[in-house]
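#lab-general

N.A. 3:47 PM
ok so I finally got the sequence cleaned up, no stray characters, all 414 residues accounted for. can someone with queue access submit it? mine expired

B.Y. 3:52 PM
send it over

N.A. 3:53 PM
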Amino acid sequence: MGKIYHLNLLKRISFFAAITILTSVVSFLLLPILTKYLSPEDYGVLSIFNALIRFIVTFLSLGSINILMVSLIDKKKSFFNLQLRSFFQISITNAILISAGIFIYIVLIGSFFGLPNWLALLSPFIAFGITSFEAISGITVFKKQQKEYSILVLSKFFLEIFISLFLIVGIGLNWIGRVSGLIISLIIVLFLMYRYLKKEKHLDFTLSKEVTKDLIKLGTPLILMNVSITVMNLSDRFFIEKMVGLSDTGIYNVGAVIGSIELIIANAVIAVFRPIIYTCLKEKTTDKKIQLYNLLILAGTLIGIYLFNDLLFFLFVNEKFYSAKEYVFPIALGFLFWGISNYYLSYLIFYKKNTINAFISIFGMVLNLILNYILISKFSTIGASYATAITYFLMAIIIYIVSLKLIDYDKKDI
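B.Y. 4:20 PM
back already:
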């Protein structure tokens, strides 16, 4: 029975992982069109926009989305509905406040990292749509609702691609077509999410100040890890825009898209392996085979990226972006180290070592910011890719050492 259970669990997780991989390659699939019809400056605007959106998403819900998922398992539906209402209230309130902050920045300083003012001001509300989408799709995962998850996620995926292609190729809206494709797909999918919440009877619009306060109190500490990851993955775009230029930011982002194939595989692999890791830790059995599989998959992906880098650029990238080739391997190497870190991070999560996690997160974030400034100043744009690789390498070493100590400590049953 145990084997059958774990097999079914693996199949279910693999299903969600497969959909996640498919929908994570939107940027990669659009690469041939974007690099053909967009200039490096246009692609730079998209790069800054995407980075800004991810930064805002990290802060928007104050970590409450994580608490929602726990509540879905531990609490009654009525309490979950109260938390869901508070989640939306927190997110939209923060979207308004962040937009106001951007407005003040524009008034006092001027252009917001090369973005048009209207897009910078609208970004927090686009981020609100993405945050809502991630929350609702997360609910379907925790409820094991494969059909509902597929409808929501694949609808956004195909709508975003086809609308973007129509607006860029058919109408010639350059980067505006890409942004509009995202906005329109979100609006349509938000309607689908509303229907889903209504069907599941989650639309309880009562509000509890106590629930909202608790949600903020419990969720805020969980932001730190997400913030550090976001900073390490995206802050380099802002450094390059300020220190080198918008055109170089666009070229660098093309290399980052190719290099992020490693990240996509790493995230998908850990989604499948993490429940197995937790089971091994709970039963105090070895996970050495899983460690080996994880390393082989990550290393194999990196080797594939290195060997087929020129082919990938030939097939998917316009020649005016070919200078981005040199950024791919260092970025992919950094994501390999992230995949290793993320594996052993499972130990910290399992043993609830949130304080250790917080210190490592702060270390990685600060180190990455310092390295970006120093290495971009010294080596120009490619310095950003070096910063990514070095940061994740050092984090992998630290997390690996700490995780081994946790295992040794647990075996002693102290």
